[in-house]
Amino acid sequence: MTDGESSSLSQTLQRANVELMIAYDSTVDAFARALELREGEPIGHTRQVTEITVSLAKAMGVNIPDQPHIRRGALLHDIGKLAVPESILKKAGPLTDQEWVIMRTHPLHAYDLLSTIAYLHQAIDIPYCHHERWDGSGYPQGLKKDQIPLAARIFAVVDVWDALTSDRPQRKAWPESQTVDYLREQASRQFDPAVVSTFLNGTMRRKVTRPLVK
Fold first, then answer.
1. Cβ(76)–Cβ(29) under 8 Å?
2. In the structure, what pLDDT confidence band is assigned to residue 149 with cuts at 50, 70 and 90?
3. Cβ of 64: how many Cβ atoms within 10 Å?
4. Does domain 3-207 have CATH number 1.10.3210.10?
5. Catalytic one among 81, 90, 144, 172?
6. Beta bridge partner(s), residue 47
7. pTM of the full structure
8. How far is CA 118 from the centre of its chain?
């Protein structure tokens, strides 16, 4: 094989690899949109939370090669809820104890699903661990502090911020000031205090494009 032929083959393989990654990521995006439809979320909601998460990861010093895995994990953070009945997902009132048991299985379902897909192995941390808490009182594993993967610690702050500043079936959105107070209160309890501090410096919050105060 000549040098020219070798170079041409290498370029062809590189193009094929890029095209394959684009196809995989398009599939991930499609799954995210399907989850939004099932849960009744506005189209684009998950993408916005994802972009804020990636921006926060950059501010926290996450290496560039790891950022695409964080993006995929954020997009698929609730993939495990496919195994949760809609009657629980969309219930307007408080969940019963038994319903909470079922709801809290969704990270385990996410792990079971994503661990079978080699391309998404490095994206599992967020779907599997974003309900762990800094003080060890979270689920499904009861991890605490640095035992919780950084990607999950980052996403947890963004996810709660978004949940509290959005209307939900059970309640109206909180004002931004109330949400800020809650995140500060929960630093070192529910959240990594370093992540909360970085998020609340204002840089990340300004990236939210929808109205925060209803």
1. no
2. very high
3. 7
4. yes
5. 81
6. none
7. 0.85
8. 19
